[in-house]
Design goal:
The protein is of the alpha/beta class. It contains eight helices and seven strands. Helix content is 38%, strand content 13%. Strand 2, helix 1 and strand 3 form a beta-alpha-beta unit. Helix 4 packs parallel to helix 6 and helix 4 crosses helix 7.
């Protein structure tokens, strides 16, 4: 008997009676939120929305708004608002567009939390496959290896097949992928990552009539134009709260830094629970 298709709506921590936190995928999957979900406690449900492309559904190549619209439909099928959304890296950009669409449709967004996400402006073009592959490898490995065995410059010297092999070997060594994982699995995830990154790069965000919280890693480097909100202040009409935590972009959601991130997320969720008494997604 054929196995039932996997759902893009993933229970990361399904128990508890509090309104759930919905975490949006960065490059495709949502396993990056597992450590955070564990530390929010047994009474805080946490769900993730993965890219449908990981499960063989959805269409590649459309814009970010179309991707977010599909995620909004997944969210609505899972329950009603007010919604509490979060996203790391480009997942924060997708969560932002989802919040824009939800509010535009008359829904309530009680909390919007972005983890080290930068507002895309202006839309980028001409992303190199080698750059995307190297970034995919870094996102996949996080900080599980002290020195990832590749860089943008190295990947520019390699062909597409060799890039996948290098990522696979590093992921196996780091324990991110099972020892029997193959090149096809890595290539599929890389294709989804490529699709997501290109959608984000071509996205021109509009204004959001609410507020958001930006959790920033102190070791992520400069903020470009000197804006601690990473461009979100011009888009969030009710303001941006910036919270600084130790670590860098890739260690933010891993121990030990994730402990402090979880404390900040708990504070945000408690605040929204005190301010909102509407219906929530059933657990």
């Amino acid at each position: 008997t054929a196995a039932p298709p996997l759902s893009p709506f993933v229970p990361l921590q399904p128990t508890g009676h509090r309104p759930p936190l919905i975490c949006i995928h960065p490059g495709g999957g949502v396993l990056c939120y597992v450590e955070l979900a564990r530390r929010l406690g047994p009474d805080q449900p946490v769900y993730g929305i993965e890219s449908p492309l990981l499960h063989g559904s959805g269409a590649a190549g459309a814009g970010l708004a179309a991707l977010a619209a599909g995620h909004v439909e997944i969210l609505r099928r899972s329950g009603s608002g007010p919604y509490r959304l979060a996203g790391w890296s480009v997942g924060g950009v997708i969560a932002f567009e989802m919040a824009v669409q939800l509010v535009g449709a008359g829904e309530r967004v009680a909390e919007l939390i972005l983890f080290d996400s930068r507002a895309p402006s202006p839309p980028a073009a001409g992303l190199e496959p080698a750059e995307i592959a190297a970034r995919f490898g870094l996102d996949l490995l996080g900080r599980r290896l002290p020195d990832p065995p590749f860089s943008y410059e190295e990947f520019r010297q390699l062909g597409a097949v060799e890039r996948v092999r290098r990522i696979l070997a590093a992921a196996r060594a780091a324990g991110v992928l099972a020892a029997d994982a193959g090149e096809e699995q890595v290539q599929r995830r890389l294709d989804v990552f490529d699709d997501t990154i290109r959608r984000v790069a071509g996205y021109a965000p509009t204004g959001y009539p609410g507020s958001l919280t930006l959790v920033r890693a102190q070791g992520s480097g400069g903020d470009g134009a000197g804006d601690p909100t990473l461009g979100w202040e011009r888009l969030a009409e009710r303001g941006v709260e910036v919270v600084w935590v130790p670590g860098d972009h890739y260690s933010l959601l891993e121990p030990p830094e994730v402990e402090l991130v979880a404390d900040q997320v708990k504070r945000c969720l408690e605040r929204s629970a005190d301010a909102s008494h509407g219906e929530s997604i059933p657990c």
